[in-house]
């Protein structure tokens, strides 16, 4: 006697793919495709701060070295540039990012009033992506100080004037290449162009500062 009950092998009763398996596959694909734009806020602040600290402090030291061979004058100038630059970067970044935060918060409030709905889970997630002024300021100040320490350390233990200038230039060159490469790797952009852009810019800044200071110093002003 044949049973009228449907069989599991019947095409009509094919078991569908589990939703859990689909979600797991989707999460795996999302994990592989990392959104590098999320790094843009802190990466921009860190790279900008490090390069500014490196180039500005080295340029100040080279400028002083153009007219004074005293190691003490060069080191004090570099240290003053480190402190002043780190404070300036932190304050500037804090004000800039806080202004951006105010604009985004105000826009979201206007959007919420227009829609007239309560706060959703999506809005809660968007709050986490808002710019953080304190984080940006701290990253800028710390990165500036790290960059500024490179020429300071390079010049601190060398008494000979020409050797000291050469050591500063060599150390700054290596650091510029490293910072350019690091920014390129973290941001997934071409490394060679990034390194050359940073390197040529740093060299120009030091050369212009040294040359103009030497010119003014030799004129007796």
Automatic annotation (TrEMBL):
One of its GO terms (molecular function) is iron ion transmembrane transporter activity. InterPro entries: Ccc1_fam. Residues 112-131 are annotated as: Disordered. It is found in: Vacuole membrane. It comes from the Eukaryota. Vacuolar Fe(2+) uptake transporter. Belongs to the CCC1 family. This is Vacuolar iron transporter. It comes from Vitis vinifera (Grape).
